[in-house]
Amino acid sequence: xxxxxxxxxxxxxxxxxxxxxxxxxxxxxxxxxxxxxxxxxxxxxxxxxxxxxxxxxxxxxxxxxxxxxx
Length: 70
Ligand SMILES: [Zn+2]
Prior knowledge:
mainly alpha, binds zinc ion
């Protein structure tokens, strides 16, 4: 867990994921091994980012991320 993880978590726990967040998610996922447990959720988010102009965080994913960042 690094400060980058915390920062990403803060952005992800917003209800809506913006375009810059999509880029941050994909970048962080590529660089951070300690986010491995959340890898699948992040992949879901990255897919949502690609499929939607205004992606929204699925509630279940958001809860998982919040739990993981406690
Ligand atoms: Zn991380």
